[in-house]
Amino acid sequence: MNAVTAQLPEEDLTRPARTTETPPPPIPVIDPAKPDVASVEYSQHRTKLSTHRTALSEHRTALSEYRTNLSTHRTNLSTNRTEMSMRRTGMSFQRTRMSADRTLMSVIRTSLSLIGFGFTIYQFFQKLHESNVVTGSSAARNFGTALVALGVGMLVLGIVYHVQFMVGLRTTREKMIEGRLVHGESHFPVSLTLLTAIALLAIGIFAIVSMVFHVGPFG
Predict the structure, then answer these.
(1) What domain count does the chain have?
(2) Fewer CB under 10 Å: which end of the chain, C or N?
């Protein structure tokens, strides 16, 4: 059921014209004294009755074919609606995935602001302290370290939530594909946003290790 079923032509759905109600042929009046004539008239009467029944039978057949065409047409419409519903459901999974990516991007932006701002504060007061411009800058440097740690923690929680959500979404999608409730034609790739978040997490961890232990690429 991958292609949309074609509908019947409109002429197949034209209702047969209403038949004209005609009474059955009257029973002939027979003269008992003329049996030969009576036999002929009765035979003609039976022929007329047979013709009348044949016309009624043909009209019933036309009505039956019309009802069959209507039933087939309704079945085709139902099939089309089911097909469209399956495709809409499949696309809704893609929209949900992109919505989850946008949520993770919001976490990345916030974490990046915290990490960048905290690292800048730490480095600024560290350089001032090393140049003997200011003394007692440990409070400001601790504040910068706390901001970086907050950004890293927020990013960890965002990644964990995103991974759990996407695993559940993929599992639900696979079950619905197995049950033929949705199409699995659309690609469901690994999130590029998740890879970016993991890379930023590694940078944040390196930054906080460098700030605390004065080692690493940012020391």
Answers:
(1) 2
(2) N
By the 8 A CB rule, do 29 and 2 touch? no
The DSSP code sequence of 110-161 is HHHHHHHHHHHHHHHHHHHHHTTS-S--HHHHHHHHHHHHHHHHHHHHHHHH
- Examine residue 114 and state whether it is found in any structural domain, yes or no: yes
> Token pair of 168, please?
């559940």
Q: Are 112 and 199 in the same domain?
A: yes
Examine residue 106 and state whether it is found in any structural domain, yes or no.
yes
Instruction: Express each pLDDT in 177-209 by its tens digit.
Output: 887 777 766 777 888 999 999 999 999 999 998
Residues 121 and 45 in one domain: no
CB contact at 8 A, 216 and 206: yes
The H or E element spanning position 212 is: helix 192-213
User: Containing domain of residue 27, as a range?
Assistant: 10-77
Of 71, 57, 52, whose CA–CA distance to 8 is shortest?
71
pLDDT tens digits along 118-162: 999 988 888 888 887 777 778 888 899 999 999 999 999 999 999
| 45 token code pair | 């009467």
Q: Of 23, 46, 77, at which residue does a domain stop?
A: 77
Same domain, 118 and 97: yes
- Model confidence pLDDT, tens digit, residues 8-33: 444 456 766 666 666 676 776 666 66
